[in-house]
Amino acid sequence: MKGRWKDWPYKRNSIVYIWLFSYSLILMVPLVFVIGMQYSTRKLFMKEIQSSNQFVLERMQQELDYVWNDLEHIGIQLALNPLVNSVLTKKVK
Q1: Are 53 and 47 in contact (CB under 8 A)?
Q2: Hey, which of 14, 68, 77, 91 has its CA 20 to 30 A from 59?
Q3: How many CA atoms lie within 13 A of 1 on its CB side?
Q4: What is the DSSP letter of 62?
C-alpha cells in the first residue's frame, strides 16, 4: 500500500488530500440525487405513456366495434330488403 501512495503527490494527512476528499463527497450528494430523480421521472413518464397508449387503443377498439356492428346491421337490412333480393336473384339472359 505504501508503494501505491508514493506516486500520489499529496500525503494522506495533508490538507489538500482532505479537501479533495471532502469536495468529492460533496459532489457525490447532488449527483446521486439527480440520478435518483432521473430514474423516478423516467419511470413516471413510461407509466404515463403506457396508460395513454392503452386509452387510445381502447378507444380505437370501441370505434371499430361500432363500425363492425353498423356493417352487420346494414348487411341484415340488405338481406331482408325485397328489392335487393329481386335484383340479386334476377337471371342474366
Answers
A1: no
A2: 77
A3: 2
A4: H
pLDDT digits over 29-70, tens only?
Answer: 999 999 999 999 999 999 999 999 999 999 999 999 999 999
The amino acid at 74: I
- 87: confidence class by pLDDT, cuts 50, 70, 90: confident
Distances (CA, A) of 51 to 41, 45, 56, 61: 15, 10, 9, 15
Distance CA 7, CA 9 (A): 6
Instruction: Reply yes or no on whether the pLDDT at 2 is more than 60.
Output: no
- What residue spans define the domains of the chain? 2-89
Burial class (CB in 10 A: 0-12, 13-18, 19+), 17: middle
**Which three cell numbers, joined as nine digits, stand for 16?**
489538500
What is the crossing angle of helices 15-80 and 82-89, to 10°? 80
45: left (phi over 0), alpha (psi -120 to 50) or beta: alpha
